[in-house]
Protein: V8-like Glu-specific endopeptidase
Amino acid sequence: MRVTAGSRPSAGPIALAALVAVLLALAAVAFVAADRGAATDTPVADGTPKGHYEAPRERGEEAAEAMRTVVREGTARAAAPTVDRAARTEPLPPSDPLEAAAADPSPAVGPLFYTGQGEPGHGCTASVVHSPRGDLVVTAAHCVHQGGFRTDLAFVPGYRDGEAPYGVWVPTSVDISPEWAENRNPDHDVAFLRVRRVGDDTPVERVTGAERIRFSPAPDRPTRVIGYAVGDERPLACQNSTERFGRTQLRFPCQGLPNGTSGGPFLTDVDPATGLGTLTGVLGGHDEGGDERNSYSAYFGEHIAGLYARAAGTRG
Structure:
């Protein structure tokens, strides 16, 4: 979380009492966002040494029940197709000005809600990606693992103005790299979640469609980044070309992607008819997302491809 430094108060008794009150209030805040990310000091559980977590069914039921207090289940819409590589795509010119602005929701993108500390609130973004089982979602690792795997997650694709048009989805499992679990290595700031909708066996991809995922992407690709700022009811989006940041990161220059947009997809080849595209990264990585002017993603190379294969069940 960014904090703007102010002037130093005087050290009189009243000022000291006020300072103590402020510190106590800050300590009581349950939803403290990491840089563009999720809360810390929240319900967590251990996973395996490989970075795998099997979510107990009852935790998902609890999260889904908590979400009933903050979202409305909308009328089901027709399933969106997974993006077709041959489909017509938008040119994605750079935003002018180069700053994120309010955008229409995309069916496969939505906020991650945290339900274990009073009223649920969203603090990160995630998106559905194509997989053999059709149940896979990707986000930043710092959104789902903070000294342990968060046990209170709920994903709402296409969220807008308190409505969940495609339902509420909860994790059945979460996969991260051991390198993230051990020391928060920014080159491994990626997580894959398998999800389900309570009371329904339909895979999420059949409901929302899915982004294709591309590994070892070329830099300098025209890209759209989408994310939900903390507390916002609609997403923000920005367009620009990515660029290399060292050998292990992509940089996306754009202002105005604040806390909550972590985990948002880097999309190329976006189909204007569906809003779906090809995912080449997620907002995170360096500085767990970046600063006011630049956003980052861990580079989706061989190690992220291996993580995807493990999460999708195509490799042990």
In short: The domain at 44-78+90-312 is CATH 2.40.10.10 (Thrombin, subunit H). The chain has six helices and 20 strands. The two ends are 37 Å apart (CA to CA).
